[in-house]
Amino acid sequence: MGLFREATEMQLEAAELELLGRTLEGDGGHQRLLRDIINRLGKHGELRLEDEELQKVARYAYRYGGGGYQDRFKAVLAAARRAGWRQS
Fold this sequence. Notes:
50% helix
């Protein structure tokens, strides 16, 4: 991997921000990733994630059983796709 990582700057919409604003309980991998995303959100819903992070979000959204957090990861992916991100 080179010095520069691909990153996507996105803008979350009100409904997506509402999903991310819901109560988050527990301390597993899904919750840790969501907390990291929430902590990095800008005042107006702006977010910058590296491709590696978005790949992880996609895995959590679609490849694991339903645990209640998939809709939140899908919201982040929707914003990333609007910003031009494509899963490799």
